[in-house]
Amino acid sequence: MELRQVRYVLAVAEERSFSRAANRLHLAQPSLSQQIAKLEKLLGVALFHRLPQHVELTDAGQRFVQVAQTLVDMADGLEREMRSYAVGESGKLLVGSLPITGAYVLPYVISDFTQQFPGVELQLMEDTSSHLEQLLVRGKIDVSLLTMPIGDQSIEAIPAIKEEIFLALPPQHPLAGQDEVDLAELADEPFILLKEGQGFRTISLRLCEQAGFRPRIVFESSNIQTVQSLVAAGMGISFAPKMITLAPGAIKPPVYTHLTTRPSRTLVVAYRRDRPMSRPAEAFVQILVKNGERL
Predict the structure, then answer these.
(1) Residue 221: HSE in the Cβ half-sphere, 13 Å Cα cutoff
(2) What angle do CA 91, 95, 97 make, to 5 degrees?
(3) HSE value, Cβ hemisphere, 13 Å, CA-based, for 294
(4) CA nearest 266: which of 112, 98, 125, 95?
(5) From CA 165, how far away is CA 216, in angstroms rounded?
(6) Is the peptide bond prior to 149 cis by the omega test (within 30 degrees of 0)?
């Protein structure tokens, strides 16, 4: 049974005439009669009594029309809803956000996005870069802010923010007054790093490896601001992306010093390459990249 055939039956029932219904539907009357006869054969019941001057519904036809009207109303409503989704007037967008980092980047993005798409519900899911990558692959979120590198080949990543990575030193550290420091000089120092699964931890370990040593990790935290607090308290040294150095918080911050190699990290906005993006998702990506250029 096809939806168009259902619509044909409703039109004939309303007009009580095949000819008037055909006129309304812009169909040839023989074609309309043929389609309804075909439907009746499929269902095994007659839907209409065909009288000389008009048609009347059979008992089966009355029941058919009763249910069919609900079916058509639901189909029309679904079509309107899907069109609304297509133009970004409604729907839901699930966005992955990195802890702390997202707090510096996303407020501006969300403000611009909600102005463009006031009817779209925006939901943020905050997690580590590795977990967000898994959620993206599994289709649990639509787009996400991630830290490079990304392991899964099914993810498309667009660079959004590139920022320098600084060395974070306690204020009393002997090297705190220098403009730049060679990381190799700090091979024997205690390090405070983020916990496993955080993208910035991977970057930190790689910097130490490139400097020729494995860091002696004395503390780990899931919060990069906590790491900065511990460094400021003299418990070790660490690293910080530029955005953290610009907004150190209420506590007395560490001393931020350039590394001689001037390392940087790249934050990307990512999505599944094999999954078509909605118009709101595409707009969110564009807004994030645009805002990233200003940071």
Answers:
(1) 18
(2) 160
(3) 9
(4) 98
(5) 19
(6) yes
φ, ψ for residue 145, nearest 5 deg: -85, 125
As a whole number of Å, the CA-based R_g of the chain is 32
Residue 2 φ then ψ, to 5°? -105, 150
| Whole-number Å distance between alpha carbons of 162 and 6 | 57
- Burial grade of 9 (CB within 10 A; 0-12, 13-18, 19 or more): buried
Q: Dump pLDDT digits (tens) for 126-181.
A: 888 888 888 888 888 889 888 877 877 888 888 888 889 999 999 999 999 899 99
Residues in the chain: 295
- The token pair that represents 251 in the structure block: 């506590």
Taking the CA atoms of residue 183, residue 259, residue 177 and residue 254 in that order, the dihedral angle to the nearest 10 degrees is: -90
The strand ranges marked E within 75-152 are 92-97, 121-126, 143-147
| Residue 293 exposure: Cα atoms within 13 Å on the Cβ side | 6
Report the C-alpha gap between 148 and 89 in whole angstroms. 33
Torsion of CA 241, 247, 252, 254, to 10 degrees: 20
Give CA torsion, residues 184, 188, 193, 199, to 10 deg. Answer: 30
Residue 219 has pLDDT above 60, yes or no: yes
CA dihedral for 27, 29, 30, 34, sign (positive or negative): positive
* DSSP summary character for residue 223: -
* Amino acid (one-letter) located at 65: V
pLDDT in tens, 47-85: 999 988 889 999 998 999 989 888 888 887 777 667 656
